[in-house]
Amino acid sequence: MPTRRDFLLASAGLAAGTAAARAIAADSAMPAADSATLAALPGKQPLIQRAFRPPNFETPLADLVAPFTRNDTFFVRYHLAVIPRVDPHSWRLQLGGASAQRALSLSLQELESGFEHVSLAAVNQCSGNRRGLFSPRVPGVQWGSGAMGNARWTGVRLRDVLRRAGVAPDALEVVFNGADGPPLPETPDFVKSLPVDRALDESTLIAFEMNGEPLPHWNGAPARLIVPGWTGTYWMKHLTDIQLIPRAFDGYWMKSAYRVPTGAFPGARFASQENPETTPITEILVNSLITSPVNGASLKRGQRSELAGKAWDNGAGIEAVEVSVDGRKSWRAATLGRDLGRFAWREFHMPLDTSHAGPMTVAVRARSRDGARQPDTLTFNPSGYHDNIVQTVTVEVM
Amino acid sequence: MRESRIALAITAGVPAITTGVLAATAVALAVAMGVLALTAGARAQAGTSSASGASPAVEITELKDGPGRELTVGRCLICHSLEYIPANAPAMNRAAWQKTIDKMRQRFGAPITDDEAKQVLDYLAANYSGKS
Predict the structure, then answer these.
(1) Is A395 within 8 Å of A359 (Cβ atoms)?
(2) What is the pLDDT of residue A301?
(3) Chain B contact for A247, CB < 8 A?
(4) Where are the domains of chain B?
(5) How many helices (H) does chain B have, and how many strands (E)?
(6) Residue A394: beta bridge partners?
């Protein structure tokens, strides 16, 4: 449990400094008619400040160019404002629940030394990434395109840890809690569950390293859940407690939040949490991001210019990225970069023809190995999830 | 001073708060005071980060002037900073703000009385409604 002292220390970090945050102009990754400030949390580079408390900071487009997103530029997303700095020496992970055969309590050292280590590259994307680009606009953190990043996560398989506790045959869901919590005791704590099959998948990890370094505080130190292919809401930070249960977990953040209309989107089903109207968001939809050129850029006529970006999906893997410069009438395949793993994003690039002066709109669509392709139009949903429409930038050749 | 504005914003709401929500108010004040008490140490920390040219993140404490502003600031600031309000304005109208205030009170336990909720709604609908 976070102590008051822990919280004050965390708050002290947040209150740091009095310098005015720098204003930056809107770019293609930001909502229309929006401006935002770039500001740094302690230990982070300046990021787009969507909200200060609880902290929600977005990665600028320029920091999404590298194959792996740096720890100090990786986005930060919290629901509740009490965020203790967890002491890794006194931290313990508790396991139990009605469908666990025994209770466990593990120190970080026991977690790190007691199970096989696994590293994988995976995109962590917030469910609400690009919510600020929705039309019509919907309430929530008004994210542009930077509530995501790609990192190499190192930890242990969740299933190895669950099997140490013993998974009873009647286990239906696995419930996760972290050290962060609400300022008011009446506010529902951020607690999430996974179907037991997804929890036992070999790719689901309890990670303690990110890009070869200990997890940063703002990204879940000392240990967080990694659920490759599923949206960030399940990637519980500051993990403290895991419960195996024989029923559907009925907390607010499962029953009332992070839900989409039933049947509206493809992807894994979370059957025990589904009702006729709504179902939990689960897998990331196939998507892409153009990192260069930026929207509104001027390209010099006849000079070499390259289209570049990233494509990613639910872990099926990117099969192709196609590019159109003629209003989506014809498409050509871009060159794919190195395969960093099926849960990572895939870089793509293609030379742009700058021989003719005038405006040029470049459209990009990715296709997944499971056949899914980015759609032309948005499937509206009230919470503003799953914006994976074909990406465009318009540039001027002059 | 930015810090004193935070304190003023929170204490502004205090006289109207009834005994039933004193605990919540205490939490909010503890949050504010905790932040204030440690800013000296935090400044020292900021000194090291400014070496890299970073602008440290700070809490936004201003909302548009108008009837109900102090109450709105005092109640909302208990749980979250204020940029959530202008940032969401393009998605909001009176009905949407009503829904949000209901959610904050009923789901998240925000200590806001019926009468206060009406004043907060009037303020937000008048000042932060960008949706027709």
Answers:
(1) yes
(2) 97
(3) no
(4) 2-127
(5) 7, 0
(6) A361
pTM: 0.86
Instruction: Write the DSSP symbol of residue A7.
Output: H
Chain A residues with CB-CB distance to B111 below 8 A: 184
Phi (first) and psi of residue A365, to 5 degrees: -135, 135
* Cα angle, residue A166 at apex, residues A107 and A195 outer, rounded to 5°: 95
The reported pLDDT for the residue numbered B54 is 57
Contacts A–B by Cβ distance under 8 A: 157
Q: Residue B41's closest chain A neighbor by CA?
A: A12
Closest CA to A86 of A170, A10, A172: A10
Domains of chain A: 21-76 (no CATH), 92-280 (3.90.420.10), 287-397 (2.60.40.650)
ipTM over 0.95: no
Give the chain B residue whose CA is nearest to the CA of A48. Answer: B57
Whole-angstrom Cα distance, residue A395 to residue A257? 38
pLDDT band at residue A8 using 50, 70 and 90 as cut-offs: very low
- What does the pLDDT look like over A189-220, one tens digit per residue? 999 999 999 999 999 999 999 999 999 999 99
Q: Which residues of chain A does B90 touch, with a Cβ-Cβ cutoff of 8 Å?
A: 31, 33, 137, 142
Tens of pLDDT along A87-110? 999 999 999 999 999 999 999 999
